[in-house]
């Protein structure tokens, strides 16, 4: 099915089938940048109220596109991961494991580790979802997305990653990956969300960060040792998916003891 465009770029774009947004021209000043600029005198009256309506429309369109996709796992990782990297291969295996478990694979829709996870999911016959973002240096969704949405605003997109996922699997990544990781940890730690396992994959890569948290942040009293229990670390894709599924199911059963029985009989 051809992409259905809601206006010209950078409007939200829904697509089923291979991504058709590669090469899309993105403005040098993004919508997020303009939103976050300081107030400009009377300009507030003429601009920000309209931005509120555009933000509202992004939420509505995102909810509408994802509401019936079924259970999914959000997979994060670096856009800079090259295709000949072992981490890229790991991402493909993660996406395939997610699909084999009967779950949708949600990524940021970009290149690198995101592309790898989408590739693994679609090649395994699963649902491959890409939530793109308007950036001055990155255009379009990777070719392994069969349901894609482009967002202007980071915070709207972040809501979708959380709302429509059973949990996170986090491949080695940089600033954007760390942003999503720590935001999810904060939401769980503050009990804004409860049924949300967070699994890091790649123990060698994450050892330094976890060592610093354990050796510096915990002794300083800025976090508690129990906060580190919110993060699980594995090296095997199948194990990562299993832990997300079991973690989400455990919390659901705590809320409703009949949940597990109903699930096993279905």
UniProtKB/TrEMBL annotation:
Q: Which reaction does it catalyse?
A: N(6)-(dimethylallyl)adenosine 5'-phosphate + H2O = N(6)-dimethylallyladenine + D-ribose 5-phosphate; 9-ribosyl-trans-zeatin 5'-phosphate + H2O = trans-zeatin + D-ribose 5-phosphate
Ranges for region Disordered: 1-41
Q: Can the keyword Hydrolase be found in this entry's annotation?
A: yes
Polar residues compositional bias, start-end: 1-12
Q: Specify the signal sequence span.
A: none
Q: What is its EC number?
A: 3.2.2.n1
| Residue stretches of biased makeup (Basic and acidic residues) | 30-40
- Does the keyword Hydrolase feature in the UniProt annotation? yes
Q: Which UniProt keywords apply?
A: Cytokinin biosynthesis, Hydrolase
Q: Which NCBIfam families match?
A: Rossman fold protein, TIGR00730 family
Q: Which family is it part of? A: Belongs to the LOG family.
Q: What is this protein called?
A: Cytokinin riboside 5'-monophosphate phosphoribohydrolase
